[in-house]
Write a structure and sequence with these properties.
The structure is a homodimer. Chain A has 12 helices and 15 strands. The radius of gyration of chain A is 21 Å and the shape is globular. By secondary structure, chain A is α/β, with parallel strands linked by helices. The interface between A and B is large, with 45 and 45 residues. Chains A, B: This is 2-keto-3-deoxygalactonate kinase.
Chain lengths: ~300, ~300
């Protein structure tokens, strides 16, 4: 491949995304797969990576910057957490080198919060935040996902954050709980549906009733034959509403930067608007992680010299 | 078996409990098994029941009163819900006859709540409440379980109730979520432990933070190496505290009758005391369900005549 300067990879629990970038960060090629952490550990992380690189004919010596769970204890090489308050420079400085790799491969660390603010961790979201921080962003950012993050950025640093298990609870409840029959056969959640909006409203107004409202999804199905689409939309809304009620403690009712992609983006935008939260900006999470990895690669690999 | 007047059975989603009683309700024999709904449907409800009765040499013609999920749509015969406000007499009158059974077999209905109070259902707990209602109980009752019930009793009737998915959430989170590794290897929850008490306090004070506190169980394990016993106790405490915060809407901070057995009884007693809730009385759930079934059997089968 001609003009490739470096490779960036977002390697998570359940997905692998790789981009070949030129020196300016433009995408020359990409690869995606479901080779998450467990599958990759079994196959061998280097084998997985090099197979994708070979498919793109990436020359030896082209360096690779990665982020995500690949840097966890169960990953390829552990990239120890950087503690809050954590700045961009600190993350890049602490990028872990993979000593066994045949080319320069580094993994960005996650961020840990300890002490009075409460133990919390992120891996991957910090990289999505990097481009915003470089552009001078300050305030609260919301990053929806399996484990949604609400992150406070001050003076170019992540000063504190809270993770909500919203996405994981949604998945567990819809697939493995007594609520499952009530949502069986439902398609995706429509962010414009009344059931979603009511769920958001009820979850926000009474997060203490969440455990009861969840059971009532089943009761409404048993007693009233409530349909699966409305039940799934209400389930999603209740969980988002309860998350927003908690996030309000961090100023989550003021303006926020929403960093999201896929269906979550539309759901969170609709729910944030309903909750009266102004979204100052919305950003595609994938664009953000790629831009963050690019910035880290340029800094860590001193690309102007290496490409000479 | 000599002196047996009738059989009572509590047949739930995951367990089968049968007692042979004399006319006064004293226990002459009992049988227990894990033959819940799914297993019994496959084997045949009558086969399961008659096998247990044969093992106790119960004569033909001895009648059987049952309650629980065996009366649900997925059970042996559906015993349609009685709507709130629901009294003792109504439940017994509406006990469904199993037409195919070779002996008199009846199943008590559950109770449904519809309309403005919110859809909700119970099956089995109403039978646990019967003896209290017969003794003139009025007020709020708490029945912990996979799906905990908070039930208001007025003038001998169940006037309203709310179900909280506390037990099911506990099971899902400890076994199938990202919290699982943090509690792996933990024994049972010690109701006297500080971790449990702190969890109750935090869940009660900030139920909106539940989704975040759950994730922090994992973070504390990752960052601080928090032990599984403390993490499991905190998980249990957080969920109970959040339930109590919701139950407070129904007067759940006033005195309550606690109907529970097994480990849940001690956990709820400790947590209720910590939450400042006075338990007027505590009752063993198994004694209650047996007494309720006995009362219903005496009424439905007119036993003084049948045993002549």
């Amino acid at each position: 491949m001609i003009g490739v300067s470096h490779i960036v990879v977002d390697w998570g629990t359940s997905s692998f995304r790789l981009w070949a970038l030129d020196r300016a960060g433009a995408v020359l090629a990409e690869r995606r797969s479901a080779q998450g952490l467990a599958a990759s550990a079994a196959e061998g992380f280097e084998t997985v990576l090099e197979t994708h690189l070979a498919a793109l004919a990436i020359p030896e010596g082209v360096p690779v910057m990665m982020c995500g769970m690949v840097g966890s204890r169960a990953g390829w090489v552990e990239a120890a957490y950087v503690d809050t308050p954590a700045g961009l420079d600190r993350l890049t400085e602490k990028a872990a080198l993979v000593p066994s790799a045949r080319r320069p491969v580094r993994i960005l660390p996650g961020i840990a919060q300890r002490g009075a603010q409460g133990s919390d961790v992120m891996r991957g979201e910090e990289t999505q935040l990097l481009p915003l921080i470089r552009e001078g962003f300050a305030g609260l950012a919301c990053l929806p996902g399996t484990h949604s993050k609400w992150v406070r950025v001050e003076e170019g640093k992540v000063s504190g954050f809270a993770t909500f298990m919203t996405g994981e609870l949604f998945h567990l409840l819809r697939s493995a709980s007594i609520v499952a029959p009530a949502v069986d056969g439902a398609a995706t959640v429509d962010p414009r549906s009344e059931a979603f909006a009511r769920g958001v409203g009820d979850g926000l107004a009474a997060p203490d009733m969440l455990g009861s409202e969840l059971f009532r999804l089943r009761a409404a199905w048993l007693l009233e034959g409530a349909g699966p689409d409305a039940a799934l939309a209400r389930l999603s809304g209740l969980l988002l509403g309860a998350e927003f009620a908690g996030a309000a403690r961090f100023g989550g009712r003021g303006p926020v930067a929403l960093i999201a992609s896929g269906p979550a983006a539309a759901l969170y935008r609709a729910a944030l608007a309903q909750a009266g939260v102004a979204t100052v900006t919305t950003h595609d999470a994938e664009d953000c992680v790629r831009a963050g990895l690019h910035a880290a690669a340029v800094s860590a690999f001193r690309l102007e010299r290496m490409s000479a």
